[in-house]
Amino acid sequence: MEKEEKLLLADEYISSLAKGLHPITKAVLPEDSVINDVKIVRCLYFVSEAIKEAMNCDKKKSGRKKKPFSLSQHEIENFRISNGEITISAIVKKLNELKNDENMVKLTTKPITQWLLNCDLLQEVEENGKTVKRPTESGKSMGMSVRRMMTDHGFFNAVVYNSKAQQFILDNLWSILNFDKAINKEKYKSDITPQNSKNKNVGQPWNHDEEMDLIDMYNKKYTIAEMSEALGRTNGGIRSRLKKLGLIDR
Fold it and tell me: Among 87, 94, 93, which residue's Cα sits nearest to residue 25?
């Protein structure tokens, strides 16, 4: 495994842990897990940012930008569909193994799950105080289900994909990659010029995705006003959350 691939995988695992999720299965970790301690969470976010900075430094040193992930139709046809049910992480691992190009970024689970959410095949629900992804009725009809699994950390519920669901993802892989490209192109564009009403999230509980966006904007030197406008929160609400995350003292 190449250095950047290891860093990408480490960042994905650490980001999942910071959200209170099992890094491989994305199952919600027990509330009493040490990972859910706010001090540990802050450290995980810090390490995630450090990894991104290290990767950016390496890219600058190499003097060339890596190509987006892509596969030809012939390469897609070489994907071996599993007869049993497998997780999205396993699917992504098999897709990355089809392309041995060090000048191309590795695929992660996020583009696929975001596309499935957009197609109403996955939905976000609350379980044990955490936001997790679960199949909709349409997703279930496509071959997605939830299975109780076990690791060294105990039992957890994971979304799994049967052969029909795996084939569906392969058939739509180009649409998934184009959707991800469009999302990345527009990232933060609507943050500064929001389309929805101001302070639309005032009084609503914060979720992990919002906190990740807040930390990202803070590290990119967004002003309090810009963060407030982007996230639909008051300036005081932004300062309070930044203080809770240990990013500011007051």
Answer: 87
